[in-house]
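Subject — a protein and its fold

Tokens — whole-number codes for backbone shape
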Amino acid sequence: MRLNFLDRISQQFKDQLPFVAYRKPNEEIVQLILQNNQELHTVVDYEETGFVFAPFNSNENAILIKNDSSFAEILQLEKTEENLESVAVEENISEKTFHLELVQKGVNEIKLGNLEKVVFSREVKVKSSQNPLQLYQNILSHYPTAFCYIWYHPKVGMWLGATPELLLEMENRQLRTMSLAGTMKYNGESEPDWGNKELEEQHMVTQFITDSLKGKVASYDVSETISSRAGELWHLKTDISGVVNLETGIGAIIHSLHPTPAVGGLPKLKARDFILKNENHHREFYTGFLGELNFKEEVNRPEKRRNQENRAYRTIKKKTLLFVNLRCMKIQEEQLTIYVGGGITRESDPEMEWKETSDKSRTMLNIIHR
């Protein structure tokens, strides 16, 4: 009997074999990659081919799911019943106190001149008996403009999410990335009114990316900064594109960009170490990155020679498409751990930063129903 798309995923999970299903932003087709054994593949130099799932801490291993078989389908999604309520989370006083103190510690470090910016995160834990595949379908329904995925490896665990942030897109030598920073809650307005804190945060990220690409990219273009809506949140976004130098490998580009100041801070390594020392949880794959690594695509084009108009020749495109792992959760049986964070600058107010993380948590909480 031929298995349908969702049944394939269920069977793979039942057999405890690695898989990832994902839909790219503004597309309808859901891709499914299956690995036919439980081997844990790790990335060595980013010259490998497969679906990569990398942690925040670049000193830890990035996982690679091999593309042993793949499928693609437009899923007919079941509409969520209107009367279903999203799960609620009670405010934990001790967790809030810790986060407020952590934000203030970050502001103090910035005022002392030790950091320019730092991004702190926290965990939101909820219980749910909902099937992970139903949660994934809820994500697909709620967030058509995000990169929506469900990822599983028996030796690592299960994650799913909906992220709006591109880390890197490369097609042969053509590169595209984005600077995404600043957050405001969407309240029905056509355009948000950004404050100095958000504008400064966005400028830092854009400057970091352009500085990181110098010497690796022959030329690059920086777009105007626009307001970009992702679900119930607004962000500031700037697109950056260019042509990568022939002698520069994709690994060098990835290492120079990750983690960006949008998820770590500045200076990059100082901020990362400050986070690892002071946050009270292990981020694991939250604020890491994930996506297609060195996928090959055949393209048939007409032969241009005069006497061979009707013939075609094939070219191979090598494509990489990576997204920053934001708005995500880890699933452990009925325990769901949602990860949220926010950028801290000199002007940050601890109470407002707590509210921002609460607003961001709704992206994942909205897909979990009572």
User: Anything to note?
Assistant: Residues 324 and 351 are 26 Å apart (CA to CA). Residues 5-75+93-301+311-365 form a domain with the Anthranilate synthase fold (CATH 3.60.120.10). Helices lie at 5-14, 93-111, 132-142, 196-213, 250-257, 268-278, 350-365.
